[in-house]
Amino acid sequence: MLWDLDGTLVTAPGLGDQMYRDVYLTLFGRDLGPIALKAGRTDRAIMLETLAMSGIASPHAHVDAFIAAYARHIRAVDGSLAGTGAVRALPGAAAAIAALADIPVRQSVLTGNIRPGAELKLRLAGLTTHLDLTVGAFGDVHEIRADLVTAARSAAAAAYSANFDGAATVLIGDTPLDVEAALATGAHVVGIATGGYSPAELAEAGAHAVLPDLTDPDAVRAAVLQLRSDIMDMKLEVIPIPVRDVDMAKAFYVNQVGFNLDHDIEPGNGMRIVQMTPPGSACSVVIGVGLPLGEPGSVKGVQLVVDDLDTLRARLAERGVEVTAVQQLGPEGTPGSRFCFFPTRTGTCGPYRSTSAPDRLAEQPISRAAAAGRVRARR
C-alpha cells in the first residue's frame, strides 16, 4: 500500500516553492522565476524543468547538486517549522492509515518529495505511525513516477520476502499521474479527490476506485479490501482420498505414517468423516464413508514434502511401512528430485519428496511438510 503525500495525506501550501527559491538563490546567486508544474510529479522532474525554465544550461548536470542542497536546506529549517502549521494532515488522513493497519497490508509512501522532505512533512503532520518508510519510494530517485513503483516493490520484496508485483500493490493518490503510474505498472489505484482533480477526472484517468476524501476511514478500508479481493490468499486445506477400508487406512496413516488424527465423526445418514494432518502441514487429508470421494486408487500424485528424506524413510521402515528405496528422479543435487514411495494397501499410494538440497534449504527453508501435489513451504 503506497500513499501519495501532498494533496492526499498532507497539505503544505507554499513550503516547497519557498525552499526551491532559497536553494536556487544559494546555488546560482539570483532569484528564481516561475517554478514548473508540480502536481503528481517527482522533485527530480520538477527541478530539471525549473532549472531549464530559469535559463540554466545543461540542467541534468546541476540537478543532483540541487537535490543535495535542497536536502540540506530541509534539515536546516526542520526545527523552525514545528508548531507553525506549515504542514497539516488532511482531514481523516491519520484515521485512514490506522484503518488499513487492521488488515494485512504493508503501508509506505510513494511520493514526488525527496526523502528528507517526505519525512519532514509526515512528522510535522503527525502521520509517521504505521508507515514503513524503508520500503517507500521518493522523488529524488527517478523523473518518471511509474519508476518509483518499481523501486518501492523491489525494496518491499527484499524487506518482506514477498512478491508485490501487479495488483499486489495498491497506490492511493490525488492526481491523474498517480493513476497513470499505477496503471503503467499493473498496480491498483484509489483516487482521492482532495487535490486539484475531481472524482470524475480521476475516474476518467482510470482509477479503480475513487473517494471524495479520507474522512470516512471505513470507506477507505472497504475500497482497498475490494481491490485486494482480486488477489486474496487461497489456502489449500483438505485433500479427499478415497480408500477401500477406512479403519485400515486410518490405522496406517496415524499409527504407522505418523499423521495427527483431527477427528473421526459420524454426522448421520451413514456418513463418516476422518480427517488427518501430516505433522507441521497446512493441509489435511480426509477419508470416510458416504462422501463423494471417488473410486479408491483414483487419487494419484499426492506428495509429502520433507526436509530429510533418508531419516524419514528409515523411521517409516521401522514402523512397518513397506517403503521403497530413495530414488533419484532428476539430476543429482537438483532440489526436489529425490523420492521414495510406499503402497498403503488401502487403495492409495504415497510418495515422499526430499527438499534437502542445501541451496534450496538456504533459500526456502521448509517450515511445513504438506500433502497435496507439489506443495511448497511458506517463507
N-to-C SSE string, H for helix and E for strand: EEHHHEHEHHEHEHEHEHEEEEHEEEH
Share in β-strands: 15-25%
Structural class of the helix and strand makeup? alpha/beta
Number of domains: 2
Per DSSP E runs of 2 or more residues, the count of β-strands stands at 15
Largest sheet: 5 strands, parallel
Mean pLDDT: 84
Low-confidence stretches: 352-379
Helix content: 25-40%
Tally of helical segments: 12
User: Under CATH, the topology of the largest domain is which?
Assistant: Rossmann fold
The first-level CATH class of the largest domain is given as Alpha Beta
Cα end-to-end separation: 21 Å
Q: In words, what does this structure look like?
A:
The chain is α/β, with parallel strands linked by helices and 379 residues long. It folds into two domains: 1-234, Rossmann fold; 238-363, 2,3-Dihydroxybiphenyl 1,2-Dioxygenase, domain 1, CATH 3.10.180.10. The chain is built from twelve helices and 15 strands. The chain has helices at residues 15-28, 43-53, 59-81, 93-101, 115-125, 145-160, 176-184, 199-205, 217-228, 246-257, 309-318, 358-363, and strands at 2-3, 10-11, 88-89, 108-109, 170-173, 188-192, 209-211, 238-240, 260-268, 271-277, 284-289, 304-306, 327-328, 338-343, 349-354. A five-stranded parallel β-sheet has the order 4-1-5-6-7, with helices on both faces. Strands 8-11-10-9 form a four-stranded mixed β-sheet, with helices on one face. Strands 12-15-14-13 form a four-stranded mixed β-sheet, with helices on one face. The longest helix has 23 residues, at 59-81. The radius of gyration is 29 Å and the shape is elongated. Residues 352-379 have low confidence and may be disordered.
